[in-house]
Amino acid sequence: MSAWMIYGANGYTGTLIAEAAVAAGERPLLAGRDGGTVGALARRLQLEPRVFPLRGPRPVAAGLEGVDLLLNCAGPFAQTCAPLLEACLRTGAHYLDITGEIGVFAHCHAQHERARDAGVTVLPGVGFDVVPTDCVALMLKQRLPRADTLVLAIEGEGGLSRGTARTSLQGLREGGRVRIRGRLQPVPLAWKTRTFERDGIARTAVTIPWGDLYTAWVSTGIPDIETYLALPPRAIRGMRRMRWLRPLLALPPVLRHLDRRIARRVVRGPDAGVRATSRSWVWGEARDADGGRARLLLQTPNGYALTASAALSCVQRVRAQAVAAGYRTPAQRLGAGFVLDLPGVRLLEDTA
């Protein structure tokens, strides 16, 4: 009998998804590289553990024996996606992950033909990165079919996990990016700022290299895309100072030192109380050459809570339905309205 697997189940987000799965009556295999923490979680949830490193295609493929779907929760995904996806293509298991990394989306997209030929669905970004923003992007495209400009912005409460902070550190090495005339273009960190209104108050936001610079383009074909994060002005000034440190991040000893500091100082992630009471918001605005404009404002639960519910729902739908093999974005695969079916998600503003 086939089963599905959470790789990186011992991480903060992987554990949340495993707990949500058990609460929903699911029995995933729990896997990762650390036998101690994977085993402890498996005992607590009364699930089967598997431990295998990501070294070489054959051992990883062996770790997926009897698995029909893999949900990768082990970041940074730039390091874990390629070996796990390759193993899925060899064994015929569907591949899902919770990445928000542009390079990972591009790598998954590049495997489209191989995945299609193997009968494998490749569906990265099934968490807060990028389900709500990808769905908003496609909703806007449906409302304004000739849109040629798209702006997306997020604001979140509740803090970061260690894994998110470590992945963000890796992203700083690449600087900022935007999409112009269909092409990804490098720009300085914190390149542009603008404001978005929520509850009658203007929120300052700054450009960040969010995964939708890849996925929203695939989902909508809109050629000009910018993605923003709402931050206090002081934090934005700090991001701009980081421009001068980027060359140092290319040095492995510097990167290892900062990674160790994050591991020591960053909390494991928001606790249950914080997740229950904090919220996130997604703004979207599309424009066309004729002056047309469409706007959306979405409220979601805390980003980690949304990731758990979205990822689990994606797993269940892919396993239950006949699927088109190959690479898809979440909105392409599940529809623009998918995010509105998730618990705690509300459409606050819809202005076409």
What can you tell me about this protein's structure?
- The chain has 352 residues and is an alpha/beta fold.
- The protein folds into two domains: 3-127 and 305-335, NAD(P)-binding Rossmann-like Domain (Rossmann fold, 3-Layer(aba) Sandwich); 131-302 and 342-351, 2-Layer Sandwich (Dihydrodipicolinate Reductase, domain 2), CATH 3.30.360.
- The chain has helices spanning 12-23, 35-45, 57-63, 77-91, 102-110, 112-118, 131-143, 162-172, 212-220, 233-241, 246-249, 252-265, 272-277, 303-320, 330-334, and strands spanning 3-7, 29-32, 49-51, 67-72, 94-97, 121-123, 149-156, 176-180, 183-187, 193-198, 201-207, 224-230, 279-287, 293-301, 326-327, 346-351.
- The protein has a seven-stranded parallel β-sheet, with helices on both faces. It has a seven-stranded mixed β-sheet with strand order 10-11-12-7-13-14-16.
- α1 crosses α14 (303-320), α3 (57-63) packs across α4 and α8 (162-172) packs antiparallel against α12 (252-265).
- The termini are far apart.
- 47% of the residues are buried.
Largest sheet: 7 strands, parallel
- Give me the CATH architecture of the largest domain, please: 2-Layer Sandwich
Query: How many beta strands in the DSSP annotation?
Result: 16
Regarding CATH, which class of the largest domain? Alpha Beta
Task: Say what the CATH topology of the largest domain is.
Answer: Dihydrodipicolinate Reductase, domain 2
**What general outline do the C-alpha atoms trace?**
globular
Measured on Cα atoms, how large is the radius of gyration? 20 Å
